[in-house]
């Protein structure tokens, strides 16, 4: 684990003092009043190498300017039916807070289909959630809990994970690369729940390929993870798929009320969607809100990510061959390419 020293921070601060005004402006949306903490995140992502961390941050700031990321929260995805389709096919939401005040982000990895829109809409939606988390949710959590909060917890539901997930590798690699390069060290811990055999087999292959700092953040829990997660969050903050004592995804909470945090009807998504529409009105004044996806430049994946994606694909193919599914896997690979 890299230890960030005061000298590293001072060197970084000296370099950042020399950047141009446009970069300084977008950096404000990155650090949200805590520039030193932001620089520390980039230092951790580059193992304490000041030069590499500075290059990474400058590349991030240029990416933000070139793709108008500062205004991403003023670009709602409309009409509502299209956005509902995104929410129904990319299962992600916020279920509450940990006892320490960290937002709990739930992700339905196994049941996400990514089949309701183009890749650009999914990327736009994902970046909007990142920006809303960093510029609205985390500052609000800091105020609520009386201390600076800059990270979240993610609970990944593997219910329904199948070999057909190979279809999603390209999109997931794009999203992962955007997060790694532009939103580093924003997740405190990843909890894996409801893991089927196919995940366990792939995890054995992928785990050794991960950097130590990433590997230490990932915990694979038994079944729905309910008992373990209740040690760090209250029942009300549990994602709906963790509220069963055994394994398997739960669509409803124990009292019979719908609390699916993936749904557009959930309070988190309603607040986020209304926020983007209000921001659009402020930016566009009396002009109508534009329809259509907002294209973002896709960064080249890190060699490490490419290696992991290849390893997952190879392992899926091996599992498919074991089950006599080699022909369907070939079709999946063609579609993924």
TrEMBL record:
Highest taxon listed in the record's lineage: Eukaryota
Pfam families found in the cross-reference section: CRAL_TRIO (PF00650), CRAL_TRIO_N (PF03765)
Alphabetical list of SUPFAM superfamilies matching this protein: CRAL/TRIO domain, CRAL/TRIO N-terminal domain
Domain CRAL-TRIO per the UniProt entry, residue ranges: 79-239
Name under which the protein is recorded: CRAL-TRIO domain-containing protein
Organism: Cinchona calisaya
